[in-house]
TrEMBL record:
Cited Pfam families: FYVE (PF01363), ZFYVE21_C (PF16696)
Organism taxonomic ancestry: Eukaryota, Metazoa, Ecdysozoa, Arthropoda, Hexapoda
CDD domains (alphabetical): FYVE_ZF21
UniProt KW Endoplasmic reticulum keyword: no
Name this polypeptide is given: Zinc finger FYVE domain-containing protein 21 isoform X3
PROSITE patterns: ZF_FYVE
SUPFAM superfamilies (UniProt xref): FYVE/PHD zinc finger (SSF57903)
Gene3D superfamilies: Zinc finger FYVE domain-containing protein 21, C-terminal, Zinc/RING finger domain, C3HC4 (zinc finger)
Metal-binding recorded as keyword: yes
Domain FYVE-type: 39-99
Top-level taxon of the source organism: Eukaryota
């Protein structure tokens, strides 16, 4: 299995982007650059409905591709989900969405790639502990210290968290870490489902494990969010 970190610099009308050398190996957190709405298709700002003219120019939001006036598309922010080198122009709605994602890219993603120690359920492994972490290309979970194939993030069917005897489904609570987690996944598309349960190690490792579980919840929320544009 190949974990590629090779990148290439590409230029589009939205700006410079650093993308994987092989499109098949892109991070599941990345979004495709949207097509721009042609200027000829609208004479009014998508948000405030002001009419474009000689003194009111059209501007495209780099995240959604829609057309706005300068006032409704004035914010410039880093957009890691599209791998832009520099901050790019966005409409207010996309700017809010991007700002809400910043914590994941600045904090949670680093936690996931650094990894945390867990104790596997005895039915899965005899190992006392293992290191669970995300690969550098963000596509797979690795389990160091345990003979287990990497798990493709896109093949995870469900992710449940146990905390104080209460099971919290990841699509219901993203604000709490937990003391254990259970993954339900397929080894390949169409394969039978498999289960893997891991528990945080004893103190002082417990806090790091709980933080890793919280980061994993945020990662899956980002990947499977319905409004992902």
């Amino acid at each position: 299995m190949e974990f590629s970190s090779f990148k290439r610099l590409v230029r589009s009308k939205s700006g410079l982007r650093i993308v994987p050398a092989n499109d098949d190996m892109k991070s599941p957190f990345l979004l495709s650059e949207p097509p721009w709405t042609p200027d000829s298709e609208t004479n009014n700002c998508t948000e405030c409905k002001s009419k474009f003219g000689f003194t009111l120019r059209r501007h495209h939001c780099r995240r959604c591709g829609l057309i706005y006036c300068g006032q409704c598309c004035a914010t410039r922010l880093p957009l890691p989900r599209m791998s832009f080198v520099d901050p790019v122009r966005m409409c207010d709605r996309c700017a809010d969405r991007t700002s809400n994602e910043q914590d994941f890219f600045e904090r949670h993603l680093k936690i996931l790639t650094s990894g945390a120690s867990f104790v596997p359920d005895s039915s899965y492994s005899r190992a006392d502990s293992l290191l669970c972490k995300l690969t550098p290309d963000h596509r797979y979970l690795l389990f160091e210290g345990m003979s287990h194939e990497p798990v493709d993030l896109l093949l995870i069917k469900s992710f449940s968290v146990s905390k104080d005897m209460e099971i919290l489904e990841c699509n219901e609570d993203y604000n709490s870490g937990g003391s254990s987690m259970e993954l339900v996944f397929s080894a390949a598309e169409g394969d039978q489902e498999k289960h893997l349960k891991l528990t945080t190690g004893p103190d002082p490792l417990r806090k790091a494990g709980s933080s890793w579980i919280l980061a994993m919840q945020q990662a899956l929320k980002l990947i499977y969010s319905i409004d992902n544009s």
